[in-house]
Write a structure and sequence with these properties.
There is one protein chain. It contains 7 helices and 9 strands; from the N terminus they run ααβββααβαβαββββα. By secondary structure, the chain is of the alpha+beta class. The strands form 2 sheets. It has a 7-stranded mixed sheet with strand order 2-1-5-4-3-8-9. A two-stranded antiparallel ribbon has the order 6-7. β4, α5 and β5 form a beta-alpha-beta unit. α3 packs parallel to α7. The protein is elongated and about 80 Å long.
Length: 224
C-alpha cells in the first residue's frame, strides 16, 4: 500500500532584495501657478500709488512755500509806496491764500493783532466789524492778521461774528515783512494798500479802538 504524502503549500514569490531595498518613488507635485492679482487689487494699488504721489507733491509745494516765505521774511520791511509781497499763507478755514493777489481787484486794509480772542485784539477786530460795510462801499476789503492757528482764528471769527477773512501767519512771515514782528510778538498795527497792492498808509503802534476809525478816515480822505 502506497504511503500518502501531503502536497507542499505553494510559497509566495520572493521579492528581489534589490527591489525591496529601493525607496518608494514619489510623484513630484505639480508647481502651483502664481495667482493673478484681481482687478480690484490692481486698481487699489494704482490708487494708493497715485495718492502717495499727490501727497509727496503737496508736501514739496508746501515746503517750497515755507522756504519762500522765510526768505521773504529776511528782507527789509516794506515802506510807503512799496508793493504788498506775494506769499502763501492759510486763512481761518485752513485754505491757501496768496497775499500778493488779495489787492488785485480792490484796495485792502490789513490789521494786525498780537493774539486772537484777547481783550484788546477783540476791541480792534470788532471795531473793524462794526464799520466793515463802510470799507466795502469804498471798494476796500478788510483782513485780520495774527500768528494764531487757523483753528483758533476760526473759533474767534465765529464767536465774535467777524465778517472778513483772517490770515494765519504762525512764522510771522508777512508780519515781519510789514515791520510788525517783534521777536515772538506782533505789534498792533494796520496797513492800507490801494488796488494793485501799493502801500499808502500804516499805523504802528496803534490803539485798539483807534485803528478802525483811523484806517477809514484815511481812505475817505483819498477822495477829497
Amino acid at each position: 500500500m502506497a504511503s500518502y504524502e501531503p502536497e507542499a503549500e505553494p510559497q509566495a514569490p520572493r521579492r528581489s532584495s534589490r527591489i525591496s531595498g529601493q525607496g518608494k518613488v514619489e510623484t513630484p507635485a505639480l508647481a502651483k501657478k502664481p495667482r493673478k492679482p484681481s482687478k480690484a487689487g490692481t486698481k487699489r494699488a494704482a490708487e494708493e500709488a497715485s495718492n502717495d504721489e499727490k501727497n509727496k507733491k503737496a508736501k514739496a509745494d508746501e515746503d517750497e512755500a515755507v522756504k519762500e516765505n522765510d526768505e521773504m521774511a529776511d528782507t527789509a520791511p516794506i515802506d510807503i509806496g512799496d508793493i504788498l509781497p506775494s506769499m502763501t499763507l492759510k486763512d481761518e478755514k485752513g485754505e491757501d491764500i496768496d497775499t500778493g493777489s488779495i489787492a488785485a481787484e480792490k484796495g485792502v486794509v490789513l490789521f494786525l493783532v498780537p493774539k486772537a480772542d484777547t481783550p484788546g485784539c477783540t476791541t480792534q477786530a470788532c471795531g473793524f466789524r462794526d464799520i466793515w460795510q463802510e470799507f466795502a462801499s469804498l471798494d476796500y476789503n478788510v483782513y485780520g492778521v495774527s500768528a494764531d492757528s487757523s483753528t483758533a482764528q476760526s473759533k474767534w471769527q465765529t464767536k465774535k461774528q467777524l465778517p472778513y477773512p483772517l490770515i494765519s501767519d504762525p512764522k510771522r512771515s508777512l508780519i515781519g515783512v510789514l515791520g510788525a514782528g517783534d521777536g515772538n510778538k506782533t505789534k498792533r498795527s494796520h496797513f492800507v494798500f490801494e488796488k494793485g497792492g501799493k502801500l499808502l498808509d500804516k499805523k504802528m503802534p496803534v490803539k485798539p479802538a483807534d485803528s478802525p476809525r483811523l484806517a477809514l478816515e484815511f481812505i475817505k480822505g483819498l477822495s477829497e
